[in-house]
Amino acid sequence: MTDMTMTRLHEVMVIIYAISLVFYFIDYWRKNKRLYRYAFWGVSIVWVLQTIFLVLYIVETHRFPILSLFEGIYVYSWLLVAISIAMHCIFKLDLPVILLNVLGFCFIVVHTFAPAQVAASPVGQSLVSELLVIHITFAILSYGALAIGFVFAMLYIVLHNILKSKKWPKQFSRLPSLAAAEQGMNYTAYCAIPLLGISLILGMMWAYVALPGVSIFDSKIIGSFISLFLYSFIIYQNRKGKLYATKYAWANVYAFLLVLINFFLGSRFSGFHFWY
Which of 190, 180, 193 is CA-nearest to residue 153? Predict the structure, then answer.
């Protein structure tokens, strides 16, 4: 396919995704099951299109597209959409699925309408290795888990405010319990922390082999270790009973925002990660 055709198809995909989100929100407020089904199938179509584009890109470049910030955003959005579909089918959760799709939609929009489109990465040209691919894959998986934790943290805050105000909206029965939201935060953090830790170890090993003399005092490295330490500290404080309820939820929200800042700005100012 030509670049123009691919661009137009991505724009169509964004439109389908946007319409699906509108259907999700209308169903959430008005309980229209027909629109809910339309929304689910719309998101499923988006994921199928993303998967097709992903496969075509892999066939064309002979590698998995995770070696630049632009490619990483696309894979991350694909992962978020896949997770939202799985949550819809397995757990039948409404609001977490909607919030996760909002995140996925934001990343797809950034990817589609970014001013600088795909650019060849120095890493992709000269330093590709299996170790690097595994490092980036584990990092993206950890970001996916942290995004789910962020969604559950926001849900916990919303649920706590609803219970505190004692004003039950019509949609209250479709929300998970406070305990379920807290478990969601816990389980995603338990998955994300080791994934991120392994990713950092593999990344340092790759840098030591492929980039001798690289400084560990790099913005992306420091930011990643701070994020890992922060999430570990939050879980530790929660287990000790010193951080709980809405304070625990807000801590997860702020920690995820730090991850996003490091994801975008850390790569931009890094001399170690050649992501543009």
Answer: 180
Tens-place pLDDT, residues 210-264: 666 666 666 777 888 888 899 989 988 888 888 888 899 999 999 999 988 887 7
Taking the whole predicted model, whether its pTM rises above 0.90 is answered as no
Question: Coil, helix or strand for 128?
Answer: coil
Q: How many residues are given for the chain?
A: 276
Q: Which of 134, 268, 255 is nearest to 206 (CA)?
A: 134
Query: C-alpha angle 263/264/269, rounded to 5°?
Result: 105
What separation in angstroms does the CA of 111 have from each of 78, 172, 201, 242? 11, 34, 28, 40
Helix (H) or strand (E) holding 14: helix 3-30
Q: How far apart are CA 218 and CA 267, in angstroms?
A: 10
- The number of CA neighbours under 13 Å toward the Cβ of 88 is 19
DSSP secondary structure code for residue 266 in this structure: I
